[in-house]
Amino acid sequence: MPDTPQFSTAEYAQQPTMERCLLCSTPLATEYYRVRGQAACASCADAARNHQSSPSGNTAFTRALLFGVGAAVVGLIGYSAFTIATSLYVGYVALGVGYIVAKAMKAGSGGLGGRPYQITAVILTYLAIALAEIPIVLWHFRARIPSGHLLTVGIRLLPVGVTSPIREMRSPVHGLINLVILFVGLQIAWRGTAASSATVEGPFRLTPAAS
């Protein structure tokens, strides 16, 4: 006997697998929206329509921050490792750092952006590029550093690392070129985390799970 459609057990393809907003973790009561394909609450959907970060909580921003810090660490390691391996200071690496930080933050936030994300991305990009000077200095002077004091020396070099782009200006031509490249890298991070138009669908009724 051929199977007949069981309308009483029909499944809704758009039903979220979890009854929480995937952007701010707010419990979903009777309805939900979809922001860039993710289940969202009314507040997050409204924020997405107005190109703002969600007012319902800091979950999306916190996740973006964690992703951004991870990307900044990867950029720092990559920048310093390249310089140590090649003995070349290539400022263009700053462009890549800005790009991966912005991409990581957008991935962590679920596509959300805005001024807080932009400011954070610029700070993380700058720190990743500037602090890359520390492992480079430690490598060059490793023979002079007493065993077990590497971390201590690295901490003491923090002010040197943070101000390294400024100190490079002592060489007018080289310093100016690197400063311009750094500025472009920061611009990439800024633009990459800007608020963008989001596809908002809904509202959809949240059907209670069958017992």
Provide an overview of this structure.
The protein has helices at residues 42-49, 59-86, 93-109, 115-131, 133-140, 150-156, 158-162, 164-167, 172-192, and strands at 31-35, 38-40, 200-205. Mean pLDDT is 78; it is low at 1-14. It has a three-stranded antiparallel beta sheet, covered by helices on one side. It is mostly helical. The two termini are 28 Å apart. A hairpin with a 2-residue loop joins strand 1 and strand 2 (38-40). The protein has nine helices and three strands, in the order E-E-H-H-H-H-H-H-H-H-H-E. The chain has two domains: 7-51 and 198-205, no CATH class; 59-192, no CATH class.
Strands side by side in the biggest sheet: 2-1-3
Distance between the termini: 28 Å
In total, the number of domains comes to 2
Averaged pLDDT: 78
Write down the secondary-structure element order: EEHHHHHHHHHE
Largest sheet: 3 strands, antiparallel
Key terms:
about 210 residues, mainly alpha, 2 domains, 3-stranded antiparallel β-sheet, about 5% strand, disordered N terminus
